[in-house]
Amino acid sequence: MATGVDAALAKAGRVCDLGTDPSQFLDRFEEWYEEHKLLADSISGITEDQKLNLLLLWGGREFRKRARVEVNGAHSSERVFRAGLPQGSVLAPTIYTLWAADLIETLRNASDRTDVLMYADDTATLSAGATVELAVARAQKSADALARWARHWKMSIAGQKTQALLLTQRSRDERGVQLLVNGTQVTGGTSLHLLGVTFDRLLHFKDHCDSLRRKVRPRTAQLRRMTGRTWGLREAQLRTVANGYVRGALEYAAGAWLPAASPSHVQLVERELLAAARVVTGCPRSTPRDPLLAEAGIPSAWSTRKTLAARTLCRALALPEDDPLRRVAEADPPTRLRSTTGWRHLGRSALIEAGAEGVTVEPRLEVPLLPWTTCRPIAFNLDVGPGGRRASSNETRREAARQHLAALPAQATWIWSDGSADAGVRRGGGGAVIFTASGETLEVEVAAGGLCSSTRAELFALRAALERVRDEPSPAPLVACSDSRAALSLLSAGAAAQTTTIGAAIWRTLLDIAERRQVTLQWVPAHCGLAENERADALAKQAATLPQGAVPSDARSLTRAVHRTATRQWRENWPDSFFKTIFGSTLPLPIPGEDREAAISVHQLRAGHWGRSLQYLHRIGRHPSVACLQCPDKRCPAALCAVCREEADVPEHVLLRCPALAGARLRLTGSIYVDPSRLRDADLVAALEAGYLRHREPLGYGPPCEYEVEDVA
């Protein structure tokens, strides 16, 4: 929808969006079917044999409205289902595609400059015009064509669910927009809700952000019920729930709308992320944004915005050249909404920042291998026995590999392949050494792309080696050895499970080779002294220096590069604080253990807002004195450290400078002057806090719980 809006805005300054919904299509299908409309000659593009096959497909079990479930080969008993088509059935989208085949052409021919967008049983049209009147007139023609089509096929349009929205920069233009849809008067509104996203007139997505906040707050409340000050889930579990249950709802379809949202509305999304982060960490509301999100393991909405924009752009560029979405991605129209950039503009900027300017995107796998493709004699061995574990010594791993390889055919063509990538992300190269059954030795080097993962480089090396021996006439077995368990695991999922172009290409080559010889893909431990593997590794490193410009990068590698760059920029731009003194530009790890109270204190101390600090409590009015009820002055007597009275008991003082803890720091770290980076150790911070509270309690401040400050959402 958002991409269609971009294309429409490139054509004209006014766009009228009309969203319709065929009433209960899936539930009414059986009635529609019984009226024999499926076999009507007006269905274009379907032969008589296809019509007959479709009838046979609908017959039998589906016609009796009964179904059963299959799990790992076991079948349940048959159950009657009420709907015309069961949810999740493969038949449902097939029938709908055939049913709606002529609707797209009908709407396209209804009026000029009208784009049609269809999603399941939701249909939207975008009618553009130089004036409001022209755009509305074209939208009315689309509505009339839709109504005629529905009457022809004995369907009803849900007029009460139809919405209209005028996209314009002038608020006065949207007044008085009226459309007649199947006899129902539809008045243009200030927003349009389609597929879970709310569009507004300026595409700022304020209404959508407000809707998200209402949706997410109950989820945050549920997350809050999973933990407290002294009890609750472990932090790793809280992070998982926060990122999946809360953040997942916020980022629904965010690739389309978040890059286009105005900064003030992105800030609304970030507020909900901060609320979830406070639950995970137990930090108070006054905690600064960046330390809070970092301690909770939740990325900033601003860095996520760049990543999602780049992912949407790369996926669009990976589509076929004639795909409408790709044409939108490649277009460069003038900007009509100055405050709105969109995923195309933001994605390009993010790719440039990641060093991917001008990089070609690898085409998406359009025709996967069929599910019933036979594997023939292809075997995958992902282990060499207990001795091959990473914890074993190099000698043990090498000996285990040699013993395992000795059981494989000696009279065979052996491939040893390896991949290399700078820091595992850049300048990929693949190398392989091939020992043929005839005694010949071959070497292969191939560039894998300027932005490339280590696993992708391994796949490039294996593909190049297999293509080198594909036409070898020898019927001797083929053994391919690789030290990448990730690459072999991806391939071992099967031919039909491949979702990448290179994975499918490797499987096609394997199937060709397996027509005349047995094929075995064997994992071997890396860097343990296997001469053949070390030789392949050297070739891979040499291949990484080859020119990379002509090698395309896949959308996943490009997206990950943007994510790394955006996250690094976020970390490097953290304002100076005690938290940045500790972590620099690194992210904290989840705090292990089950002591929830200690974990919360560690987060608060490192983030710089400790809820048990007298200075903090005095600043918020929870620790008044006779002379001063409340003030932010750290030199106020009520804010001084209760133990040493030298300065305010801010986290820096408690953990690094308080004389009362000099002995504890010496015992725990070997020095009374602790390097702030040592405070990344959560156990050290917890021990220092516990020691400080033990010193303070005899001075009349009571047990720690009396100075606890809970966050009130």
UniProtKB/TrEMBL annotation:
SUPFAM superfamilies in alphabetical order: Ribonuclease H-like (SSF53098)
InterPro entries: RdDP_mobile_element (IPR052560), RNaseH-like_sf (IPR012337), RNaseH_domain (IPR002156), RNaseH_sf (IPR036397), RT_dom (IPR000477)
Transmembrane residue ranges: none
Protein name, per record: RNA-directed DNA polymerase from mobile element jockey
GO molecular function, one term: RNA-directed DNA polymerase activity
PANTHER family membership: ENDO/EXONUCLEASE/PHOSPHATASE DOMAIN-CONTAINING PROTEIN (PTHR36688), ENDONUCLEASE_EXONUCLEASE_PHOSPHATASE DOMAIN-CONTAINING PROTEIN (PTHR36688:SF1)
Domain named RNase H type-1: residues: 409-545
Source superkingdom: Eukaryota
Keywords: Nucleotidyltransferase, RNA-directed DNA polymerase, Transferase
Signal peptide, first to last residue: none
PROSITE patterns given in the database record: RNASE_H_1 (PS50879), RT_POL (PS50878)
Domain Reverse transcriptase intervals: 1-199
Species, as recorded: Amphibalanus amphitrite (Striped barnacle)
CDD domains, per database record: Rnase_HI_RT_non_LTR (cd09276)
